[in-house]
Design a protein that fits this description.
Layout (H helix, E strand, L loop, with lengths): L1 H28 L3 H23 L4 H29 L5 H10 L7 H8 L4 H16 L1 H10 L5 H9 L3 H13 L6 H12 L1 H15 L6 H29 L3 H10 L6 H9 L4 H26 L2
Length: 308
């Protein structure tokens, strides 16, 4: 009960307060969701990824282990999603919307504080979460963009769009600079820090604006898809992570941190993609909202299980 109350008060309620503020601001000022989406994609996300990756101390061996886990985990999740998509007979933009709502986890403004709470700020588990966050930031800007555009655009145009995403350059740049121990000049470190610090707040406001502007009703078929999305993200996610860890023979604190990282709700990136490329924004927004709301129960359960 103490863990549940702590997660609710310190992580979930603060998120919903900012989301509510975004919804209210939309109702009062009719904020432009497209502008907010572009700010998130082209400025905030690259800055926060670069800052965290450049400043996190992690060995190359552990980095490689986490990447290997992430690849196996994503492949297993994708296989399950492919079965669901085919069984449901989804068409148009819905297969991509469903996949993105499950594959993209909120590893930043939910995953980081949950990691610090669950493991009492342990630097090892925090480093694990930062790598997962980096990979989760890279995925929407590559595969995510491809998935929401593949059914209606040429491969060349999709690849051109992906090449225009700053985050795919921020990741190798941060790794190279940290590996070669190249100091970041103060006149660059300061603005990067300013922009990165704005990431969580503006991302949540963007979600609130989208929730405030959308129609809350979904067709009956999409309600089932929404239920499947939330179930696969919150319940199947940590179960598949445990399977991937078992296949790799990984145990201990790193394994626990990876399971907790897989239990977080749907990422705001799925909403940003849906809005930016007009691909099922109502479904994507509700997937984020309800998975975040219900994660108060599921994440608490996962934390309790991994600490038995």
């Amino acid at each position: 009960m103490i863990i549940f109350t702590s997660i609710l008060l310190n992580n979930v309620i603060p998120l919903f307060i900012v989301i509510l503020l975004g919804a209210v601001l939309y109702r009062v000022f009719k904020l432009d969701i497209k502008t907010l989406s572009k700010l998130n994609f082209y400025m905030l996300t690259p800055a926060v990824v670069f800052q965290l990756l450049y400043g996190t101390d992690i060995s190359l061996v552990l980095f490689g282990q986490i990447i290997l886990f992430f690849c196996i985990y994503m492949l297993l999740q994708y296989a399950v999603l492919e079965i669901v998509v085919r069984a449901r007979g989804l068409k148009g933009g819905m297969p991509a919307a469903l996949r993105n709502s499950v594959l993209f986890a909120n590893s930043a403004n939910y995953g980081l504080p949950i990691n610090q709470l669950a493991f009492s700020g342990n630097p090892l588990t925090l480093a694990v979460q930062v790598v997962i966050l980096t990979l989760q930031s890279f995925l929407p800007n590559t595969y995510g963009i491809y998935s929401v555009n593949a059914h209606r655009s040429s491969l060349r145009r999709v690849l051109r769009t992906i090449a225009g995403q700053p985050v795919i350059y921020a990741i190798p740049l941060a790794l190279v600079m940290r590996g070669l121990e190249i100091p970041l000049p103060g006149f660059l470190a300061a603005p990067i820090g300013y922009v990165a610090n704005a990431f969580i707040g503006l991302a949540l406001v963007t979600l609130g604006v989208q929730l405030g502007s959308m129609k809350w009703s979904l067709p009956s078929g999409k309600r089932l898809d929404l239920t499947l999305s939330v179930t696969l993200r919150l319940l199947a996610g940590p179960a598949i992570a445990a399977l991937a860890l078992w296949l790799l023979g990984m145990e201990g604190l790193v394994a626990k941190a990876l399971i907790v990282s897989s239990a977080v709700p749907t990422s705001l990136s799925s909403v940003l993609l849906a809005v930016e490329f007009d691909n099922e924004p109502e479904f994507s927004s509700q997937a984020v909202f309800f998975s975040t709301l219900l994660s108060t129960l599921t994440v608490t359960g996962v934390i309790m299980l991994v600490n038995i």
